[in-house]
Amino acid sequence: MTVFNKVYRCFRKMEDISHHIHDKIASLKCILDLSVVELPKNKIKRLGQEMFALERLLEEFEKCVDQQEEQLKHMKDLEKLFQKDQKDVQHMKDNIPAHMPRKKAPANGNEPAVNQKEAADVQPAQQEHGKKSSKGYIREMAVIIMSEFESIPQYMKGRVSYDQLNAAVHNINTAVTAKYKILQQSVKILNSHSRKLHQRFKEQETKETKGQYFVVDDDIREFTQMKVDKRFQGILNMLRHCQRLRELRGGGLTRYMLL
């Protein structure tokens, strides 16, 4: 039985007792009105019985009042808990982070047919390196969580906000995905532009990048709208601080390798 049902039944019971008490009081008033005359013994006995019954009813009424007060206190406690839960849920609803940490599962290899007009389209090929263990799998950089962002020194953060930093993470992941989808395709099915990109990607690889995922400045420009400027270099410093990437220089290029 719910709390509300118990309270409702208690109110009904109190209402019945109240009506009964009123009836008893009316009966007693009637008897007292006749007290101006000498009453027979049986009437006096009846008056005593009515008084005793009224006393018992009053005791029961007080008991019901106590129960109702206890139920009311319990309901107020439940209301406070409900209000707290409602406030917590609303807070979570109003503060859902724009970037949620997630794990990217390896693809199963059953990818759709390739559209040659889009550089990012892919038909997964056999992986050549140890870390590229599954067909179609492309590693991504994990988003920065708030505790990591707060650990970055203020001089390094400058005016870059938490959301702006994770937007940069998203852009770098976009460039990485687009690049390695092209590398996973056969050169024969690529269009002219994608073939040139494929060749450039291969030329940029070294022994140190074997089995690793990396992009360079030109990849950022090619696949995203993010500007490769001084602010971008500051973001890279923050990502290195959070151990999301490291730099590998050589051959006139700076390679941003995912960790």
From TrEMBL:
Q: Which residues form a coiled coil?
A: 51-95
One Gene Ontology MF term: microtubule binding
Region annotation Disordered: residue ranges? 98-134
Give the UniProt record's GO annotations in the biological process aspect. cell division; chromosome segregation; mitotic cell cycle; regulation of microtubule polymerization or depolymerization
Alphabetically list the UniProt keywords: Coiled coil
Family in the record:
Belongs to the SKA1 family.
Q: Which PANTHER family match?
A: SPINDLE AND KINETOCHORE-ASSOCIATED PROTEIN 1
Q: Report the protein name in the record.
A: SKA complex subunit 1
Give the source species.
Answer: Monopterus albus (Swamp eel)
Q: Lineage from the top down?
A: Eukaryota, Metazoa, Chordata, Craniata, Vertebrata
